[in-house]
Amino acid sequence: MTLEELALLGALPDSSVPSLAAVAHEVRLAWCGPEVEVEGIVSARTGGCPEDCGFCSQSARFDSPVLATPFLDQASVVAAARETADLGASEFCIVLAVRGPDERTMARLEELVPLVRRETGLNVAVSAGILDRGQAARLAAAGTHRYNHNLETARSFFPEVVTTHSWQERFDTCRLVRDAGMELCCGVLLGMGETDRQRLELLGELRDVEPAEVPVNFLNPRPGTPLGAAGRWSRSRPSAGSPSSASRCPA
């Protein structure tokens, strides 16, 4: 469907939504079947992120209750993966609250990804922020099945939510993931003050990166974040040196 056709669907009255949802369900069954994939996620490094994503309680720039913790040790990550496998999942995602992986983090991931795969038989996914071409190639070579990196919102709205990195950096990472041969998980976060037109814009941008899956998230305002009061946030932000006990949500 074109974006214009999707806009017409978006303008349908509320009374038409159940019928539209039923048709969408039939389309999903026809193309994807009735099965669902179960995936486990471990936050291997929580908090302390330098980025200023206005929705995220893991940013070190905001005064939220989330405390920064070091990278989990190898045994803890493998134990979490085994628990995931025991629950019948097929995928296990290692998530890090970082802008992007430094060399030490890359080395840890290159050890963990094949280890988890070998110990559990699970497909292994990674979410570690912005990548360059070499990092994407290394993660793929280590056996990473899928990389999670969300666009979050439309290019035109992104500067209202994040200022420490650009929408283009996220988009480029998504392209590099696919170029390296990994599956791409690329999602969105709705309810941050974007317009319906910007949501349609985002649909078109998602198509451009051709993700294997698209998580659709809705803002759950977190205490201490600029969007913690729910709704569009102020452009005024704490300075980079502001004291904080929090951090940021990865990817």
SSE blueprint and pairings:
Elements: H1 3-10, H2 17-32, E1 39-45, H3 74-86, E2 91-96, H4 103-120, E3 123-127, H5 133-141, E4 146-148, H6 167-179, E5 183-185, E6 188-190, H7 196-209, E7 216-218
Parallel strand pairs: 1-2, 2-3, 3-4, 4-5, 6-7
Helix pairs in contact: 1-7, 3-4, 5-6
Average pLDDT over all residues: 91
Summarize the helix and strand pattern as letters. HHEHEHEHEHEEHE
First CA to last CA: what distance?
28 Å
Strands of the largest sheet, in order across it?
1-2-3-4-5
- Tertiary shape: globular
- The helix/strand class is alpha/beta
The tally of strands reads: 7
Largest sheet composition: 5 strands, parallel
Low-confidence residue ranges: 231-251
Strand residue percentage: 5-15%
Total helices: the number is: 7
| Radius of gyration from CA coordinates | 19 Å
Kindly state the percentage of residues in helix: 25-40%
Task: Provide structural commentary.
There is one protein chain. Helix 6 links the parallel strand 4 (146-148) and strand 5. Residues 231-251 have low confidence and may be disordered. The longest helix has 18 residues, at 103-120. This protein has helices spanning 3-10, 17-32, 74-86, 103-120, 133-141, 167-179, 196-209, and strands at 39-45, 91-96, 123-127, 146-148, 183-185, 188-190, 216-218. It contains seven helices and seven strands. The chain has 251 residues and is α/β, with parallel strands linked by helices. Helix content is 36%, strand content 12%. The protein has a five-stranded parallel sheet with strand order 1-2-3-4-5. Helix 3 packs parallel to helix 4.
